[in-house]
Amino acid sequence: MRCFGCGARISGAEAQPDFRCAVCGDLFEVEYPGWSERRGPDRPNPGALKWLWRERRCSSEELDHSGVWRFRELLPILDSFGNAVSLREGNTPLYRLIRSSKALGIDQLYAKHQGMNPTGSFKDTGMTAALSVAKERGFEWVACASTGNTSAAMAAYAARAGLRSLVLIPDGKIAWGKLSQAMDYGAVTCQIKADFDGCLQLLIEIVKEAPIYLLNSINPYRLEGQKTPAFEIAEAFDWNVPDHLIVPGGNLGNSSALGKGFREMMELGLVARMPKISVIQAAGANPLVRSLAETKGASIEPVEAHTRATAIRIGNPASWRKAARAIQETGGWCLDVTEAEIAMAKAEIGAEGLGCEPASAVTLAGLKKLRSQGKIGSRETVVLVLTGHMLKDADYTIDFHRGTLLNDEEKVGLEAKIDGLRRDAVKVEATRAAVMTAMKERAE
Ligand code: F0G
Question: N or C: which end of the chain has fewer CB within 10 A?
Fold first, then answer.
């Protein structure tokens, strides 16, 4: 592992329980010697890899059915791949966004739907990697602080591996779908009177004392799994990467991981360039937007986070430096979107027949802004990363369609647009005539 701050190198087994560098306190990154060199025995052969990964799609080996471990040559983090704990994650669909594509005048607009993973979010791709390390190293307990999706994923993978899991979540500020998953998969679930940042701080104190393996995205193995959607995207475009990748930003692990995935592919000669990576935050939880605007990413000021997109309600993101690098090295942007913009974008993604959770919809809201600012051309290929499944937070969706989600202030100037997107359910008498009338009224 290499420290992102001071460059100190340690072996994986030497990492401290909180995965911070003992010298400078920054986070580590998994580094593979020889990959960035032009030649050498440690450098995999790109042509052979592409062929092998495609062959595995027809394989009957269980591990080959995972969209993460299918790429295991670029994920050599286990002593034995026999220790991998998999729920057949990854291999998620890349959908064309037909309506939004027309509305925005972009020919090639896609959604990589990471909500189609086994527990309904992108966290599964990271969890299969880091939890397998926990199992291989003989831990009995794993733990995470979470806004909901990490805990759902961790609880499921821990259950599959026969490990116990501890979840710290902010009391009252997570979506019920996610909480129900942690319970059903058998985690010890603690609702803490603190926000996500407080939960993570508390958990770090706990893992420093007890032999519990931390599975938040400060654990660099999480990011190794989460880089694999970059491989899937490149493969789907026949190794010609799209021009833009748009990702939601919370704790900023995912944007960092996808950046690493594309960077490694480029270093290894699998692709010729990286896409521009843009990160979108909610306006009420936008510390990276501020950091880049005010200090060009030199420092970050934590904010008190507020947004109904509870997955990204994070004011002090751990991986901000790594995410800033991904944006800056690719020439992408970082911007924020309002609660109304998120809600409208979510309804638009729903109207495409796809759906996603609120945090994922910031990508489309962000794309609209980038397009209106002239930063994305009509001929460019754009991929939105939809991070979570629509059913994770059904309350949000119902409140939007009933018209009770947003307050008047949030809706100012957008009332007609919002009403045009709402599809509330109607109570109708049990007669043919009443149903036909309701249908006609709605059709109009
Ligand atoms: N989208 C969804 C659906 C999420 O659950 C998260 C993060 C993000 C986006 C942001 O990703 O943190 O890597 O920048 N959820 C975490 C959790 C924090 O605990 O489930 P990030």
Answer: C
